[in-house]
Queue: 4 jobs
Job 1
Amino acid sequence: MKIKESIKPLRPYQPGKGIEEVKKEHQLHYIVKLASNENVYGPSPLVKEKVNDGPIDFEIYPDGYAEKLRLKLADSLHINPDTLVFGSGSEEIIQMICRTYLEPGTNTVMATPTFPQYKHYATVENAEVREVPLLNGKHNLEKMRKQIDTQTRVVWLCTPNNPTGCYISKEELRTFLKQVSKDVLIVIDEAYYEFVFADDFPEAIPLIDAYENVLVLRTFSKAYGLAGLRVGYGVGSKDVITNLNKIRGPFNVTSIGQMAAYFALEDQRYIDRIKAKNVEVRSSLEHFCNQHGLLFDKSETNFLLIHLPTSGITVSEKLLTYGFIVRPGELLGVPNSIRVTIGKKEDMDAFKVALLECI
Ligand SMILES: *Cc1c(COP(=O)(O)O)cnc(C)c1O
């Protein structure tokens, strides 16, 4: 059977090792997964409590408009409910964007390395992918702007960027938006927004009033701790949202996902606590790296990209024998590094000891 030419070179997503697999393979009882930037503390306890009590009719399709969640989220973001689109994770919205805006003969501009799904779905649509190397872990916006031409449909700004954790400042973003034609969609992926402390991190959502070509992506998978339930959202102009909705599956977010996200929003104090704990443990890991002469990218997220004197693959395999699952930089486009999710304090203290044994 013949498949689309564009997907021939693609490979199915390679998941990292699972907890059970590592336990078995290395005969360990306790495994710490620091590979996918999930919230190691889990969601607010309120979520489990409410979802367990919740009246969910499993036989009924979900609300395709996600009304309860939509109204609550719109209220907390101070936006019009119709400027929201929901996805089965923000990853699905990335796919929707590519389907809606890209086709053969068009191109899309992004950093490298960055979140890999932009390139993946753009390739499926047979669009040309123009990648601009990061500069010290940061987007090189000047060079990215020069890659934009009349055939450019979408530009991806991942901020803070995965896998480096570096962000685009308010001033840099303003300058960039002013210079780029308004017929190019600018996607601002803020998957780690809730972790950011930097004073000059831009509030991107209010920019949509002036820039109808901006679409901001957020997710309940990271700080909110709901990665397993798959809920992400986009905020954009009515025009962009209407077009994305044309190709959105009508029931793409499950009833449980909608309900869990709704209750997660009720407990903002929990998110504040997660943010505070994360920065405390991350600072301690940074301090450790400094002490041992390990370089890292300046992160505003719940992960740290640590540069090593040796292969990240070798080090991550050794770390498995100590029960730590991390992501080797080789798989993310940064050789000789590992990307480490910021775990709980006690786990990270053990991680530091193990890391010294492995490098
Ligand atoms: C984790 C992540 C996402 C995807 O999250 P979903 O679980 O699909 O909502 C999107 N962008 C970046 C940069 C991420 O790190």
Job 2
Amino acid sequence: MARAYNFCAGPAALPEEVLFQAQEEIANWHGVGCSVMEMSHRSDEFVSIADEATQDFKDLLAIGDDYEVLFVQGGASSQFSMVPLNLLSDKTTADYVNTGQWSKKAISEAKRYCDVNVVASSEAENFTTVPDFDQWALSKDAAYLHYTPNETIGGVEFDFIPNVDAPLVADYSSSILSEPLDVSKFGLIYAGAQKNIGPAGLTIVIVRKDLLGKAKDFTPTMFDYQVHAKAGSMNNTPPTYAWYLSGLVFKWLKRQGGLKEMAEINKRKADKLYGYIDQSDFYSNPVDPRYRSRMNVPFVLADDQLDSKFLQKAEEARLLNLAGHRSVGGMRASIYNAVPERAVDALIDFMKAFEKDYA
Ligand SMILES: *Cc1c(COP(=O)(O)O)cnc(C)c1O
């Protein structure tokens, strides 16, 4: 059977071209006689794969030499602890913005290590918006400010980069590489790979070099950014296959024309889907239109009794993984870079047909 369109929030769709290339190379990479999975991470071959992937990632985001790019494990969730452990230094307070489920998790983990000042929260609005920046109650002496530019579950995305004095830390797990980004505005950016980069098991950290080397004494070795930076992310065995596959994705992104081109495609995809939802009485999206995510589009049906029917029919139409997050229900279409525009068209066609049959 042909491949389906996959709207999973993560692990998410990968570019088909990349999968076929990996298939071709899987058993015998470039004639060396073994798979990338079977290579020593210290071999010249793997080091060349890793270096090229890292350089392509830096090229895509135009990352300056004053930043380290680390390829680590433990998911974005481990960053919830690594950030305070490494960046608090001698400070005792960190600022956090609470815009949804992932912000909340980052906040609760940071509370183990410092006084968390929640500078603003949209919890009272059920996480359907971003608090106005001029209302944020910033601390005088925060070690950093942490926020979540794209809330994967609520489908809420910032349309601005906060301008604060403290180093800016962002969980870009679900929107990195979706558009050009001025990395120089940030102290640290992290992203789990399984949404908009590559396979699960890899997390990328971009950290300004002057923030390294200040980890708390009790920081586990593998949680210290400096250790990873000094070892070229090979203090221990890195997730080699995920690193390689992500490298293929970076090459694919370059072939598409880079992040400016991806931004245009992503905007067009999101505009189409929200446009259809908004003109329909049958589907709705609760998010403040200014802050709707270009990557994750949650929507509900007028009658939630039809949810399971919708999901069943969608699967029959080869549209996979449209169920909303288990904590919120409803539907969610994640339309990352690797989800082609024709997948969004197919989803809208399906939604129209379903509305006609069941409204
Ligand atoms: C998925 C996600 C996480 C958690 O990532 P893991 O790699 O599973 O730990 C954290 N933050 C955001 C914004 C996410 O989308």
Job 3
Amino acid sequence: MHPGVPMVTVLALMALMMPLFSGAVDIRQLRQLAARHNVTCVLVFGDSSVDPGNNNRLPTTMKGNFPPYGKDFFDRHPTGRFSNGRLATDFIAEALGYTKIIPAFLDPNLKPADLLHGVSFASAASGYDDLTANLSQVLPVSKQIEYLKHYKLHLSRLVGGNKAQNIVKNAIFCFEYGHQ
Ligand SMILES: *[C@@H]1O[C@H](CO)[C@@H](O)[C@H](O)[C@H]1NC(C)=O
Ligand SMILES: *[C@@H]1O[C@H](CO)[C@@H](O)[C@H](O)[C@H]1NC(C)=O
């Protein structure tokens, strides 16, 4: 993995995002910083804390696509997020001005334009080791990274190889394993 955005930038962005939930974040400052560092999109890896519905497409019982999940989501729609509303990564994408939600890479309704703003490869009940994920038939980190390669291919077809490379190189990579 080669996050092109320097660690310092990521840390600075994270620091600016901290007060996001208290509503105290300076969105303008955050966006200026992201623009200055050519940040392109958000790519997410992890577990249920950031899975927007990849597990819906997997033969696992670890799903969050039924009520009361999503009761505070747009249209009260259960999406697969293990949350009543949006996930932290959705708010990050919104703060950066990209999109209101980061969709699941495995979502069959994923639109080409969604690839430009970022997607999530996260899978609820996943862990760093393949065994944890295997037990519940979800995506281990290794598989999530394999899907990143698929993502790059789709993106290349959409915008061309050079632009795709630039987008991935300047993406913010979020790794979130919160529920282990
Ligand atoms: C952002 O992109 C511009 C134009 O390509 C480049 O000159 C600049 O060095 C880049 N900034 C960073 C921090 O990579
Ligand atoms: C999970 O374990 C089974 C049994 O050991 C194996 O056949 C299968 O390939 C593994 N699946 C993954 C996704 O690693």
Job 4
Amino acid sequence: MSHVTHLESAIDGTHLPHDQLQTLHEGRPLWVRYDLGAVKAAMTKEAVASRKPTMWRYKELLPVEDETKVATLGEGMSPLLECERLGAALGLNDLWVKDESQLPTGSFKSRGLAMAISRANELGVERVAIPTAGNAGGAMAAYAARVGMEAFVFMPADTPIVNQHEAAYYGARAFLVDGLITDCGAVVREGTPEMGWFDVSTLKEPYRIEGKKTMGLELAEQFDWSLPDVIMYPTGGGTGLIGMWKAFAELAEMGWLADERRPRMVSCQADGCAPISTAWEAGERFADPFPDPVTAASGLRVPAAVGDFMIIDAVNESGGQARSCSEESLLSWAQRGAALEGIAFAPEAGACLGVLEKLVAEKAIDPDERVVVFNTGAAQKYVEAIGTNPLPRLPNPVDWDTLKS
Ligand SMILES: *Cc1c(COP(=O)(O)O)cnc(C)c1O
């Protein structure tokens, strides 16, 4: 049994029951609410520390009722890596990377989809559909396969080639759509009555946030329940940023955090698709759809986010910022980070590094502050981006004269 009490509309606070399938309320997402007193009584730090190193170690603070229905591929805990060389390049003395590239299907999407598919499985869903900018489709296909669910994936025709193949490889019925992820979302909505599938779009069901929340729980545990000063998060739909901010609030309410420190949450986007930073910079709570979104950081190519106000609220409550950087900056920082640290930085994480460079230059971050960058995906999934820009094709054959010079 979980300690979930109800679901709560993020836009107007309406309570909804959690023992049945739920989607949006008034077109906006739902929070999962727990009896945190009961969670605190049922869970100890020692018990958590003794469990397997997966995101399910926080099970009392997660929504699954029946553990036999869990869809798992061993997701989490991801390594938290200290990065001295990359830190020095950015002018920082205490830089860390939470490396999500090692999770199943090569991105942190596995956390959210493991949770969403587990809950859908518990509630009797047999067929799921998703619009995706790339990694979510592969993750959903894998977890659906894991519990024998039928999966349908819709992605823009220019989605990275590895994402196109992986969804089909995991047995999903995968389709390309001429247009953006929002157009793929329209296809899923249109097909729902006839196909009878459950829509697991970002934030359109309540549980992906709970899966992504585990990044915040892990980070707290890995830093001995004391949070860093700044978190740099590459924002598409914003689930991870929203989920981590929720995790910190829940841990604080349970009295599990060692001190009062809460990180400043920095939402990072690419200049080519920056709806959240544009809205934040204008002092808005809701974002306008971003016209003609273009970026190799495909996970950030989300021109309209249904949880825009939840992202901006978290950023503002934390004293953080929502910013973007150029395409050149994110691609070159991702590659530089990979070469300096051996971490498979995805272009999305490159956006965090590009924004970090700006914030250090603006003195918005002190060199001694503890900063954590989320590397949300594996560089290997972006063969087009890493093969062309900024790296040239590899020389063949070996030219010894050039090599030795
Ligand atoms: C989806 C995705 C993002 C954006 O995540 P949200 O939580 O939806 O904002 C960032 N990076 C990668 C690699 C992604 O696949």
